[in-house]
Amino acid sequence: MISFLLIGTGFLYALFILFTYHGWKKTKTFSSDTDNFKTKVTVIIPARNEEKNLPRVLNALLAQDYPTEKIQIVVVNDRSEDATESLLRRYANEHPHKVEYLNIETLPSNMSPKKHALLQGLSISKGEWIAVTDADCIMGPQWLSSLSREFTDD
């Protein structure tokens, strides 16, 4: 009886390994060939009092393996009361034509702050694709290229 259980368990395990191997072989291979990335992407970041988080997310976006001329980073400063604006001014000066920001002074009464910030960011976006992230997120260097790969028909 025990040998039957051991043989059955071994057989099921072997089937599991075969199915896993078969599934693994069907996955697409990752290619970091940036010549294939032709679409301009705008990344919009709504931010309010995010002076501590913004350097991490901006540095992560500036380190993307996506072609730099195809990335526009727009940070929407939503009435921050800390040093967010001066930090954004510094990044925009250090990375012209790549990091842009705009300040929101007032908020319409019928709209949430984040929705309003996103709409303002969309108004100056130049990308064919829009990616949205929060200021407290950190992405890996292949974030945009992997997003692009998912939406490109090759």
Plain-language structure description:
It contains five helices and four strands, in the order αβαβαβαβα. It has a four-stranded parallel beta sheet with strand order 3-2-1-4, sandwiched between helices. The longest helix is centred in the first third of the chain and has 25 residues, at 2-26. It has 154 residues and is of the alpha/beta class.
List keywords for this structure.
single chain, 154 residues, alpha/beta, 4-stranded parallel sheet
Summarize the topology.
Blueprint: H1 2-26, E1 41-47, H2 54-62, E2 71-78, H3 84-94, E3 99-104, H4 113-123, E4 129-132, H5 143-151
Parallel strand pairs: 1-2, 1-4, 2-3
The poorly predicted ranges are none
Counting helices, strands and paired strands, the structural category is alpha/beta
Give the ordered list of helices and strands.
Answer: HEHEHEHEH
Residues in helices, as a percent range: 40-55%
Give me the count of strands: 4
Q: What is the makeup of the main sheet?
A: 4 strands, parallel
* Strand order, sheet with most strands: 3-2-1-4
Shape: elongated
Q: Tell me the number of helical segments per DSSP (H or I, 4 or more residues long).
A: 5
Mean pLDDT: 89
> Using only CA atoms, what is the Rg?
22 Å
